[in-house]
């Protein structure tokens, strides 16, 4: 049986997810905002849950229809073949959302859709009361501009929950977002990865798992595993087969290495614990280090980080000082590539270098940019003479922003040593905690 499978994702990662799905063998892949749909059988449902790194969930599309009244909402649900997925004893809770539609009351929509499902399944199984003591089959509805979509979730807990991070620091980057950035940075089997703001170690763990071909869902369970079957197919048997294959696919002979640093000793220990739980501790080293002390002798490396920003843990001015320090200690040379995610609109000016490429991403509900530097930059001493009234958006990729351009200094001056701030220690958070 071929199903229409739908996978929501964070905005900005749609093309990354689509590429993952095609690599798995998904067919008729279609991309829309925050979602990728494709065709596949029950085995593909299992593989998608185990292997997709940037998907938030794996859902089965049951049907869609127009509804601008509660009667239409009820009748549309009643006509769907729910019995193909839900058994007589299964639990089938309903949840969802409505946007720009006539029907705005979510509780009312939930109640109407639940009643329609009960009527449909009651007639098919010839029962009037559902004990709902069996496995959970979570029904999800979306109503957008009066168009209703009914989905059946197969993942259970969101796919960003890999199982290696039971606790995290105050502002962790989501695993699915980290995995997407790592793929955009083309991290592979021979990459030397560095995260100077490692926090709970998400980039380190996800990077090592990607390089070693470790399935992100290998250490967790999924909602549909408890289902007796999916139209005659034993999901438990399929999961056992796919897990065994995933274990066999793990590559322990890769040359990948990862280094993580954080100013906070609690974050350092947390990162060590998480990479150990992820099964990648052998190729990851984590140390306590201030960003002001950052350096690398590696001839080739990929530096990926989620530095602090004012909306979350630091005051805006403190975060800005950190960005300036990053620009001073991040050496610009060939084969050193930097991928930095930040919501700060003036990051490039503060960092001192225009990005070679930018990509809009969302870290939770926060709109960010991924600033990508992979061309080696232009040394400050060789930067072009420029118009002092230019803004960061006027700078060409890889061109340095001179301290005298577009801003003035008061109190702090570019002098010896570290410059604007004597050290990143001057830009620490006012309260204890990891840097991101």
Helix and strand layout, with pairings?
Elements: E1 3-8, H1 14-24, E2 27-32, E3 35-40, H2 42-51, E4 59-66, H3 70-78, E5 94-99, H4 106-125, E6 139-144, E7 147-153, H5 175-184, E8 192-195, H6 202-211, H7 235-249, E9 257-262, H8 265-277, E10 284-288, E11 301-305, H9 316-329, E12 336-342, H10 347-351, E13 357-363, E14 366-373
Parallel strand pairs: 5-6, 8-9, 8-11, 9-10, 11-12
Antiparallel strand pairs: 1-3, 1-4, 2-3, 4-7, 6-7, 12-14, 13-14
Helix pairs in contact: 2-7, 3-4, 5-6
Task: Provide an overview of this structure.
This protein is of the alpha/beta class and 436 residues long. The protein has two domains: 151 residues, VC0802-like (2-Layer Sandwich), CATH 3.30.2130.30; 212 residues, Rossmann fold (3-Layer(aba) Sandwich), CATH 3.40.50. 27% of the residues lie in helices and 20% in strands. The chain has ten helices and 14 strands. The strands form two sheets. The chain has a seven-stranded mixed sheet with strand order 2-3-1-4-7-6-5. Strand 6 and strand 7 form a beta hairpin. The longest helix has 20 residues. The radius of gyration is 25 Å and the shape is elongated. The two termini are 45 Å apart.
């Amino acid at each position: 049986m071929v199903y229409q499978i739908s996978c929501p994702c964070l905005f900005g990662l749609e093309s990354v997810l689509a590429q993952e799905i095609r690599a798995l063998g998904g067919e008729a892949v279609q991309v829309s905002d925050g979602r990728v749909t494709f065709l596949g059988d029950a085995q593909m449902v299992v593989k998608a849950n185990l292997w997709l790194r940037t998907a938030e969930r794996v859902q089965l599309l049951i049907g869609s229809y127009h509804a601008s009244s509660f009667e239409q909402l009820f009748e549309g649900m009643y006509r769907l073949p729910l019995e193909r997925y839900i058994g007589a004893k299964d639990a089938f809770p309903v949840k969802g959302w409505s946007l720009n539609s006539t029907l705005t009351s979510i509780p009312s929509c939930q109640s109407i859709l639940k009643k329609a499902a009960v009527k449909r399944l009651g007639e098919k199984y010839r029962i009037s009361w559902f004990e709902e003591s069996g496995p959970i089959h979570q029904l999800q509805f979306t109503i957008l501009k009066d168009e209703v979509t009914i989905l059946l979730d197969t993942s259970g807990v969101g796919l960003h929950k890999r199982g290696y991070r039971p606790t995290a620091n105050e502002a962790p980057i989501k695993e699915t977002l980290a995995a997407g950035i790592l793929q955009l940075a083309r991290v592979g089997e021979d990459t030397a990865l560095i995260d100077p703001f490692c926090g709970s170690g998400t980039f380190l763990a996800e990077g090592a798992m990607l390089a070693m071909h470790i399935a992100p869902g290998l250490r967790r369970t999924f909602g549909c595993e408890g289902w007796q079957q999916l139209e005659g197919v034993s999901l438990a048997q399929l999961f056992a087969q796919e897990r065994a294959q995933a274990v066999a696919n793990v590559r322990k002979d890769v040359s990948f290495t990862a280094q993580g640093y954080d100013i906070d000793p609690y974050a350092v220990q947390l990162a060590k614990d998480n990479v150990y739980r992820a099964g990648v501790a052998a190729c990851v080293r984590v140390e306590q280090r201030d960003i002001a002390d950052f350096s690398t002798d590696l001839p080739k490396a990929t530096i990926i980080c989620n530095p602090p920003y004012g909306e979350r843990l630091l005051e805006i001015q403190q975060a800005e000082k950190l960005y300036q320090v990053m620009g001073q200690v991040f050496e610009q040379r060939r084969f050193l590539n930097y991928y930095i995610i930040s919501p700060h609109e003036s990051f490039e000016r503060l960092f001192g270098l225009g990005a070679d490429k930018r990509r809009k991403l969302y870290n939770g509900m926060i709109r960010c940019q991924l600033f990508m530097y992979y061309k080696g930059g232009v040394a400050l001493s060789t930067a072009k003479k420029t118009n002092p009234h230019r803004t960061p958006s006027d700078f060409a990729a890889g061109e340095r922003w001179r301290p005298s351009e577009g801003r003035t200094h008061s109190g702090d001056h570019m002098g010896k040593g570290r410059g604007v701030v004597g050290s990143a220690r001057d830009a620490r958070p006012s309260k204890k905690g990891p840097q991101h």
